[in-house]
Design a protein that fits this description.
The structure holds two protein chains of two kinds. Chain A is an alpha+beta fold. Helices cover 33% and strands 15% of the residues of chain A. Chain A is built from six helices and five strands, in the order αββαβββαααα. In chain A, strands 2-1-5-3-4 form a five-stranded mixed β-sheet, with helices on one face. In chain A, strand 1 and strand 2 form a beta hairpin. The longest helix of chain A is centred in the C-terminal third of the chain and has 16 residues. The two termini of chain A are 31 Å apart. In chain B, the strands form four sheets. In chain B, strands 4-5-10-6-7 form a five-stranded antiparallel β-sheet. The termini of chain B are far apart. The chains are: A alpha+beta, B alpha+beta. The interface between A and B is large, with 39 and 35 residues. The structure holds flavin-adenine dinucleotide and FE2/S2 (inorganic) cluster (FES) (2 copies). One FE2/S2 (inorganic) cluster binds next to loops of chain A.
């Protein structure tokens, strides 16, 4: 892996007319990707515009709203504050990596059941923050759940239903551990 | 976003090579301050040099009562560190109150310092702990007191060619206590209206205060220590009267300005109030354990 990183530090990775193109390798929702990006491309733009993952939303573009949340190497990040070039060598999960129409992730199911989705703009980010929490701590209390959502704003629901939806998954997985 | 070249160093040696070759570089750590500035076109760098993979700058090290923290450790790492929780609780509290989980996962201690915001949360905590920082260039290493690093908002004494590599301070002993207090505007993501950190040592024989440091953010162009208030505490036992004096002294010693987040007058009052709480908490912890 080091060899890969090292290459990026050197000039010959920049090619063509533009000195500022970069080739990156990363794992996206379980699949290996190799793409070429402009060095000033934000991760959120790479994911949405080049890779078609429109579940990643752009709200504020400055780290405040969390609509652009993705999981990088197990930790949530605002993809509007990350350069695409920086994710070389990492593993990324977006909402598209959690489930699909026929096989919803327990968090997705629970958000629907609890009515935690209104306009839906904040939902992918909320669910990814919740997933990162549950991966670290499968049995969080309410305060821990609320704190884990501090970087995700919702203008519609008032958060109560979102917290309930996450609590429901916690309860289910303690009854039925293989589901989480 | 303007066009720039992106480089990434995996070692300090590689970083220094690039910094020599591209003297108009801009350093990138977690990017939570820098990318906001680039997105909003406040700055337009030509060359961005990413330090975030330099392993050597990612450690938390405790030896013989001295902490050495790599500048690249994130606020999340600070919060999760058991040794820091035990021996530097004010710093852990400050890092835990930065932004949101997303911001803390990427934002680094070094970035918080080098960004030189008067509101940076980790800085008053580190000032109260008496921290020093190590600045390294290709040829030289120098260690400076953190309080001597800041010149003004966004301005430090870090020279071209230098990287802030480490943060150094002493682990707290049982007769010492520390506290961090912050007043922000919203629950999360709040840039501090005022923040304060206090460190106190109690002499185990006389039970009086033998060492005190009080630091504040957002009440001057840089985070500051309020030494008149510190001196009031020395040699004394904490009392309601002493706390009141400290509070008034702090309010008169700080030099806040009006801005969009709060009025100067309000900031003075809050500064006094937060220091009072922090002194009380630091004293309780020190005397309880000592
Ligand atoms: C939504 C949001 C909320 C926030 N909330 C808070 C908050 O509550 N409290 C708070 O204190 N901050 C807050 N911040 C600011 C920021 O997250 C922190 O200051 C963070 O610690 C910065 O670290 P970084 O690694 O991301 O810095 P970067 O953005 O990578 O760098 C910041 C600056 O420091 C320089 N730099 C970085 N590392 C080094 C180094 N090792 N040597 C020399 N120069 C270096 C860079 O060139 C740049 O100028 C917030 C930011 C956002 C976007
Ligand atoms: S769009 Fe990234 S945090 Fe709002
Ligand atoms: S459901 Fe609309 S923003 Fe949350």
């Amino acid at each position: 892996m080091n060899g890969l990183f090292r290459k990026l530090g050197t000039k010959h990775l920049f090619w063509g007319e533009h000195m500022n193109k970069v080739a990156i390798n990363f794992v996206l929702n379980g699949q290996e990707k190799t793409v070429q990006v402009d060095s000033n491309t934000r991760l959120v733009d790479l994911l949405r515009d080049d890779l078609g993952l429109t579940g990643v939303k752009i709200g504020c573009g400055e780290g405040e709203c969390g609509a652009c949340t993705v999981i990088i190497n197990g930790e949530t990040a605002n993809s509007c504050l990350v350069l695409a070039a920086q994710v070389d060598g990492t593993e990324i999960t977006t909402i598209e990596g959690l489930g699909d129409y026929n096989h919803l992730h327990p968090l997705q199911e629970s958000f629907i059941e609890e009515g935690a989705v209104q306009c839906g703009f904040c939902t992918p980010g909320m669910i990814l923050s919740a997933k990162a929490l549950l991966d670290r701590n499968p049995n969080p209390d309410k305060t821990e759940i609320v704190n884990s959502l501090a970087g995700n704003l919702c203008r519609c629901t008032g958060y109560t239903k979102i917290v309930k939806a996450i609590e429901r998954v916690v309860k289910q997985s303690t009854v039925n551990p293989e589901r989480s | 976003m303007n066009a720039f070249d992106y480089y990434r160093a995996v070692s300090l040696a590689e970083a220094f090579d690039l910094m020599r070759d591209k003297p108009n570089y801009t350093l990138l750590a977690g990017g939570t301050d820098l990318l906001v500035k680039i997105n909003e076109k406040i700055i337009s760098p030509n060359v961005v040099l990413d330090l975030s993979l330099i392993k050597d700058m990612r450690n938390i090290h405790l030896e013989n009562g001295h902490f050495t923290l790599g500048a690249l450790i994130t606020h999340t790492q600070v919060m999760d560190s058991e040794v820091l929780q035990k021996f530097a609780p004010a710093l852990v509290k400050a890092s835990s109150m930065v932004g949101s989980p997303q911001i803390r996962n990427r934002g680094t201690l070094g970035g918080n310092i080098c960004n030189a915001s008067p509101a940076a949360d980790a800085v008053p905590a580190l000032l109260a702990l008496g921290a020093e920082v190590q600045l390294m260039s290709e040829k030289k290493v120098r260690t400076v007191l953190l309080e001597d690093l800041f010149l003004g908002p966004g301005k430090t004494t870090i020279a071209t060619g230098e990287i802030l590599t480490r943060v150094l301070f002493k682990a707290q002993r049982p007769n010492q206590g520390s506290s961090f207090q912050k007043l922000g505007k919203r629950k999360a993501l709040a840039i501090s209206v005022v923040n304060a950190a206090v460190f106190i040592e109690i002499d185990s024989k006389t039970r009086t205060i033998s060492e005190a440091r009080i630091a504040l953010g957002s009440v001057a162009p840089t985070p500051i220590r309020v030494k008149r208030a510190e001196n009031l505490l020395l040699g004394k036992i904490l009392s309601a009267e002493l706390l009141k004096q400290v509070r008034l002294t702090v309010a008169s010693e700080v030099k806040p300005i009006d801005d969009i987040r709060a009025k100067a007058e309000y900031r003075r009052d809050v500064a006094g109030e937060l220091v009072e709480r922090a002194v009380q908490e630091a004293w309780n912890k020190a005397s309880f354990l000592g």
